[in-house]
Design brief:
Keywords: Cytoplasm, Hydrolase, Metal-binding, Nucleotide-binding. It catalyses: a ribonucleoside 5'-phosphate + H2O = a ribonucleoside + phosphate. It comes from Clostridium muellerianum. By secondary structure, this protein is an alpha/beta fold. The protein has one domain: Stationary-phase Survival Protein Sure Homolog, Chain: A (3-Layer(aba) Sandwich), CATH 3.40.1210. It contains seven helices and eleven strands. Strands 3-4-2-1-5-6-7-11-8 form a nine-stranded mixed sheet, with helices on both faces. Helix 1 crosses helix 5 and helix 2 packs parallel to helix 4. It is globular and about 50 Å long. 42% of the residues are buried.
């Protein structure tokens, strides 16, 4: 398969390196990722300035790689239009430094890059690894991504599907299995830390803690229990539950 890899942690991040190393064993891989970290940039795109693209060498990676001075969504757009010849079979985004579960899917540049691919009618996968005490699980996440690709390639590589894969910080032999589940209820108890600058102006730094929902059958819950989670996503945000009801008002 011909695969485009991107992320939101930057082209030199360990996560995308690990994913490329695993996938290029059996697939043709092209990398286009932000030149610097663009975490939590959601689905923003660059409109009022040109994108600067440079071919880069990632030591130990045989695949072509490009740095893009833009967002993850920018990387997908410009790669499909200018950097890749022919059809791309799938776009993979990650491996993200931390899970993208619950409300994080709305903030995540990793997930948004995968959604951008679906807008172009290309199936995609966002891959994320739980981080604990500064330790990652990228190798295990890369193996699960490769295994999932083999399982879905014949039947489930539909053009509008975004697969959201989260891997817990657990040794592979201790992972309990894979749970196909819905997005959970993770939210944040946010506040802003205020400081007065020498100029007299004020700065406000976002702080907060995760408020994990314990609702069962969700990605947030199952990752915490030691499962790999897989959630099919779609970019259509229509609330179909009340669509017909609202129509009746008019």
């Amino acid at each position: 398969m011909k695969l485009l890899l991107t992320n939101d942690d930057g082209v030199n991040a360990k996560g995308i390196y690990t994913l490329a190393k695993e996938l290029e064993k059996n697939h043709e891989v092209i990398i286009a990722a932000p030149s610097a970290e663009r975490s939590a940039c959601s689905h923003s795109i660059t409109m009022r300035e040109p994108l600067i693209i440079k071919e880069v060498n990632l030591s130990g990676i045989k695949s072509k790689a490009y740095s893009v001075s833009g967002t993850p969504a920018d990387c997908v757009k410009v790669a499909l239009d200018k950097l890749i010849d022919g059809k791309v079979d799938m776009v993979l985004s990650g491996i993200n430094n931390g899970t993208n579960a619950g409300i994080d899917v709305l903030y995540s540049g990793t997930v948004s890059a995968a959604i951008e691919a679906a807008i172009y009618k290309i199936p995609s996968m966002a891959v994320s690894s739980e981080i604990k005490d500064g330790e990652d699980n990228y190798e295990v996440a890369a193996e699960y991504a490769a295994e999932l690709l083999e399982k879905i390639k014949d039947k489930y590589l539909k053009d509008d599907i975004v697969w959201n894969l989260n891997v817990p910080m657990v040794n592979k032999e201790k992972i309990k299995g894979i749970k196909v589940c819905r997005v959970g209820g993770r939210t944040y108890n946010n506040y802003f830390e205020e400081k007065v600058l020498e100029s007299g102006s004020k700065s406000f730094q976002l702080k907060g803690e995760i408020n994990n929902s314990e609702n069962a059958e969700t990605d947030v819950y199952f990752v915490k229990q030691g499962y790999v989670t897989l959630t099919p996503l779609h970019y259509d945000l229509t609330n179909f539950k009340i669509l017909e009801e609202v129509k009746s008002l008019f």
